[in-house]
């Protein structure tokens, strides 16, 4: 990962962490990668002062769960209450804590339990800072399902459009040619996910648009049918946040790789 400093001009990142080792490693890594100088807050008082001292919005916070002066998670609650996008960087973790973190709509959580923890944190930060370049379309006849997926994607800083049926999806794609990923339900009343995918593939290839199908059905063969119709991936509901985000990232990474190779061939 290498980026010019201009890409992230005006980006303000706060690191709420009391470990000198980790704050030094994080500061050095983000400076190397993004030319960003982070603000270090070693206790809860520092965090509150950092927020109050400037009217410039905080782009992203990286926070330990337990901070001096906020040993019971008050720092994370403070950031969440202020609607500041937050990545939790913690060495304290168990399944119950994971559920609580996800419920708070944090951006991500990284476990500092191995030597690659800072690199994983840097990758998560990079994705958050660059996800806005990706436009994602959600197609589902359920307003609740659309809202849930939209909320998840916006949490990760994606640009999101929604469509309540296949006809609306086709219209949206025609108007928004920058959409690079579509997530579509299988069971819809007018045009189901299979037919929608087939119609799209008649005009738009996988090098322009990745398609992930989703379904609540217990029929395991749906994935095979969807892939044969031109889809790139398929997930059965209910799926967990980490799996969903990983599959989205994998498809968008593949899209960027394909587009990069096509550009190189065109130049050659």
From TrEMBL:
InterPro entries: Bact_response_regulator, CheY-like_superfamily, Sig_transdc_resp-reg_receiver. The modification 4-aspartylphosphate is found at residue 185. SMART domains: REC. GO terms for biological process: phosphorelay signal transduction system. Gene3D superfamilies: 3.40.50.2300. Keywords: Phosphoprotein, Transcription, Transcription regulation. Residues 12-127, 135-252 form the Response regulatory domain. Pfam families: Response_reg (PF00072). This is PleD family two-component response regulator. It comes from Rhizobium aethiopicum.
């Amino acid at each position: 990962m290498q980026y010019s400093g201009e890409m992230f001009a005006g980006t303000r990142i706060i690191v709420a962490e009391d470990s000198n080792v980790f704050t030094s490693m994080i500061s050095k890594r983000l400076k190397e990668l993004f030319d960003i100088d982070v603000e270090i807050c070693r206790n809860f008082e520092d965090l509150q002062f950092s927020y109050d001292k400037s009217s410039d919005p905080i782009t992203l916070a990286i926070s330990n769960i337990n901070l001096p002066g906020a040993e019971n998670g008050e720092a994370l609650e403070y950031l969440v209450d202020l609607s500041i996008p937050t990545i939790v960087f913690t060495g304290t973790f168990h399944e119950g804590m994971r559920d609580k973190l996800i419920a708070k709509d944090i951006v991500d959580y990284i476990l500092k339990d191995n030597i690659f923890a800072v690199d994983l944190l840097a990758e998560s930060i990079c994705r958050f800072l660059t996800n806005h370049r990706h436009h994602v379309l959600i197609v589902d006849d359920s307003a609740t399902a659309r809202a849930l997926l939209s909320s998840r994607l916006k949490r990760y800083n994606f640009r999101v459009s929604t469509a309540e049926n296949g006809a609306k999806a086709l219209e949206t794609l025609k108007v928004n040619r920058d959409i690079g990923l579509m997530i579509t339900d299988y069971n819809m009343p007018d045009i189901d996910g299979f037919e929608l995918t087939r119609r799209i593939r008649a005009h738009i290839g996988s090098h322009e648009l990745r398609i992930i199908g989703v379904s609540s059905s217990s029929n395991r063969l749906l994935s095979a049918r969807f892939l044969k119709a031109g889809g790139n991936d398929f997930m059965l509901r209910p799926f967990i946040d980490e799996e969903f985000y990983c599959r989205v990232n994998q498809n968008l990474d593949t899209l960027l790789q394909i587009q990069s190779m096509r550009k190189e061939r065109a130049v050659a």
